[in-house]
Amino acid sequence: MGKYMIRPLLSLERLFFDEKEGRVNYRYGKGAKDQEKMDYLEFIARVTSHIPNKGQVMVRYYGLYANAHRGKVKKASRPLHIVEEELRRIPSKGWAAMIRKVYEVDPMTCPKCGGTMKVIAFITDFSVVDRIISHLKLTFTAERSPPPPEIAFQELLLAADPPVDYFL
């Protein structure tokens, strides 16, 4: 990509479209006399001819970067001469630490005895979770149902911008 940015296919400063004739003029070389005039369809065909076909290899690697060299090194089981910097994985904070930070409550503390709990399994199947909840006779109902979206949106707007009396 960098090669294309350094040396583009054509310069827009040297390109001119003559609307009267419907032709594209392209100046090339050092003198302004060197021009090539062509039909706009021919110009489009010339520009698109530089676009490679799908899967066509445009960049070839030689020397240490070539596939053949890497294959020979792998076969000989000697280390590559190319040194790549290894990225160390930064461990993310666990879910429990994030809940503790946001809600200021430790989810790994037992609500009955206050001891530290540990995770023994992750259940991802919804039917199993529903069976466990129904077996433990747990209910997750809110004290009151949420308001309809229109009313909730209006309440948020009113809470964000208190009414101002413009006419004094």
Number of domains: 2
Average residue-wise pLDDT: 76
* Helix-strand string: HEEEHHHHH
- Terminal Cα separation, in Å? 64 Å
For the sheet with most strands, the description reads:
3 strands, antiparallel
Helix content: 25-40%
Low-confidence stretches: none
The structure class reads: alpha+beta
Instruction: Give the C-alpha Rg.
Output: 34 Å
Give the overall form. elongated
Tally of extended strands?
A: 3
The proportion of residues in beta strands is 5-15%
Strand order of the largest sheet: 1-2-3
Number of helical regions: 6
Description:
- This protein has 168 residues and is of the alpha+beta class.
- It has two domains: 1-79, no CATH class; 93-159, no CATH class.
- It contains six helices and three strands.
- It has helices at 2-6, 40-48, 67-76, 95-103, 126-135, 149-160; strands at 15-18, 23-27, 35-39.
- A three-stranded antiparallel beta sheet has the order 1-2-3.
- A hairpin with a 4-residue loop joins β1 and β2.
- The chain is elongated, with a radius of gyration of 34 Å.
